[in-house]
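ARCHIVE CARD
CATEGORY: sequence design from structure
SOURCE FIELD: tokenized fold
FIELD CONTENT:
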């Protein structure tokens, strides 16, 4: 009987101990000022996310130089000294355009590029001798002239291209890219020249009995020792254009990119222009040119 009462007392003491308030030791969890982990779930906290602007449209401006050309120029008629494309001087480029990002790596753009005039041909030839005669109030004057004709031909053009570009390393500041495009080429040939006449002999005759004759060039009765005629001719032609390019852009700021690259440009469209006297022709045919370009791309919205 005594054993039974002892067991009951022991069980009652254990139950009272389980319901007693928590002590400071219960809250320490083995660390200073700590709280015991009772296994209850914590309050969920969302993961932080970075904010990134996604621009869709941009504008651009470029400058560059065209060099190392290939193609053909042919002439007909009297000789004219021609600079074949392989010997052309460098040509400056000014470009404007706008584009759209279709994805973080792919974009399309439309551009207009103007290439300044370069000299294609020049020539000098002697013209047949000629004379001018003036008679005023009994005085007649005549001058004989040698003539030299000189001219040059300049070429300038504009391309309108629609291109696509693939950008690598989409989250980096330096982003290499490759691209290709097709469009329209507008060509203009400008042929300018003039003929200079220089007096080499002449005479003045004054009416009388007998008439008085004085040899030599003179400026009597409105004649001059030399005179010059100027003239010009222009021709505009159209053709296809295509480009392949590669380069790298650098993110100056989140919406400003410095873009530098190389472009191989092909242009078609045969164009010709005749000389002022109609005695010669010059034609330029399909050609390739190499270009180095640099510019800035601004993201708008």
């Amino acid at each position: 009987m005594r054993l039974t009462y002892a067991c009951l007392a022991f069980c009652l003491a254990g139950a009272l101990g389980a319901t007693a308030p928590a002590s400071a030791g219960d809250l320490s969890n083995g660390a200073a000022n700590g709280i015991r982990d009772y296994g209850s779930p914590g309050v969920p906290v969302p993961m932080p996310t970075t904010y990134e602007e996604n621009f869709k449209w941009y504008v651009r401006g470029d400058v560059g130089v065209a060099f190392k050309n290939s193609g053909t120029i042919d002439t007909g008629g009297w000789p004219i000294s021609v600079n074949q494309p392989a010997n052309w001087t460098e040509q400056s480029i000014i470009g404007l355009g706008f584009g759209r990002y279709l994805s973080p790596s792919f974009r399309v753009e439309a551009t207009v590029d103007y290439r300044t005039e370069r000299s294609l041909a020049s020539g000098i030839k002697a013209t047949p001798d000629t004379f001018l005669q003036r008679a005023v109030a009994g005085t007649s004057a005549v001058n004989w002239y040698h003539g030299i004709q000189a001219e040059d031909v300049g070429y300038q053009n504009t391309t309108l291209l629609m291109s696509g570009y693939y950008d690598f390393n989409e989250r980096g500041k330096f982003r290499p890219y490759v691209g290709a495009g097709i469009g329209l080429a507008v060509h203009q040939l400008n042929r300018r020249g003039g003929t200079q006449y220089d007096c080499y002999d002449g005479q003045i005759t004054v009416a009388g009995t007998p008439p008085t004759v004085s040899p030599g060039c003179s400026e009597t009765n409105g004649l001059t020792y030399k005179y010059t005629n100027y003239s010009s001719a222009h021709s505009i032609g159209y053709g296809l254009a295509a480009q392949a390019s590669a380069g790298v852009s650098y993110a100056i700021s989140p919406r400003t990119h410095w873009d530098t690259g190389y472009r191989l440009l092909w242009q078609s469209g045969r164009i010709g222009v005749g000389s002022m006297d109609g005695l010669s022709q010059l034609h330029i045919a399909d050609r390739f040119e190499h270009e180095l370009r640099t510019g800035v791309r601004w993201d708008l919205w």
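CARD ANNOTATION: The longest helix spans residues 2-18. The longest strand covers residues 174-206.
SHELF: design records, drawer C
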